[in-house]
C-alpha cells in the first residue's frame, strides 16, 4: 500500500510538468523522474511489482501510464531513456487484455492536457 500511495506522487509531479508555466521546469522534470526511478528500483527485474503476479501496485501505476507521453512532451525527456524498466513493465502490462481494453490512448490524454492548459490560460 505504501508504494501504491507513491503512485500519487508520480501523478502529482507529472501534473506539475504540464500544468505549470515558467521557470523551474528542470526541477519539475527531475522530481518526476526521481519518483519513477524509485518505483523502477522496486520492480527491478521482476515481471510485475508483485513478482510473477499482476497486482495492486501494477493496477495503481498502469492507470497513469497514458500520461507518460504528455509528461515527456512538456518535460522534454524520454521516459524510456530515463526509466527503461518502467517502460518494459508497462509494455508487458499493455499486452494483458484486462489492461489494453481500458487504457486511454496517450495522444488523447495529450490533447486533453492541451485543452486544460488553454482553459486555464497557460500557453
From TrEMBL:
UniProt keyword annotation of Transferase present: yes
GO molecular function: glutathione transferase activity
Cellular compartments annotated: Cytoplasm, Cytosol
Enzyme category, top tier: transferase
Pfam family, one: GST_C_2
UniProt cross-references to InterPro entries, sorted A to Z: Glutathione-S-Trfase_C-like, Glutathione-S-Trfase_C_sf, GST_C_Tau, Omega/Tau-like
Keyword Ion transport: no
SUPFAM superfamilies: GST C-terminal domain-like
Record-listed E.C. numbers: 2.5.1.18
GO biological process, one term: glutathione metabolic process
Domain of life where this protein originates: Eukaryota
Catalytically driven reaction(s): RX + glutathione = an S-substituted glutathione + a halide anion + H(+)
Keywords: Cytoplasm, Transferase
Residue ranges constituting the GST C-terminal domain according to the UniProt record: 1-120
Gene Ontology cellular-component terms listed: cytosol
Known role: Is involved in the conjugation of reduced glutathione to a wide number of exogenous and endogenous hydrophobic electrophiles.
UniProt similarity note: Belongs to the GST superfamily.
Designated name of the protein: Glutathione S-transferase
Amino acid at each position: 500500500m505504501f508504494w501504491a500511495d507513491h503512485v500519487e506522487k508520480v501523478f502529482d509531479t507529472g501534473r506539475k510538468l504540464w500544468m505549470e508555466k515558467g521557470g523551474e521546469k528542470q526541477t519539475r522534470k527531475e522530481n518526476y523522474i526521481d519518483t519513477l526511478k524509485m518505483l523502477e528500483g522496486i520492480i527491478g527485474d521482476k515481471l510485475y511489482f508483485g513478482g510473477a503476479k499482476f497486482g495492486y501496485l501494477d493496477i495503481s501505476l498502469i492507470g497513469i501510464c497514458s500520461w507518460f507521453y504528455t509528461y515527456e512532451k512538456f518535460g522534454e525527456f524520454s521516459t524510456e531513456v530515463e526509466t527503461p524498466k518502467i517502460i518494459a513493465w508497462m509494455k508487458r502490462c499493455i499486452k494483458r487484455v484486462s489492461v489494453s481494453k481500458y487504457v486511454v490512448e496517450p495522444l488523447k490524454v495529450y490533447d486533453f492536457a492541451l485543452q486544460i492548459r488553454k482553459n486555464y490560460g497557460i500557453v
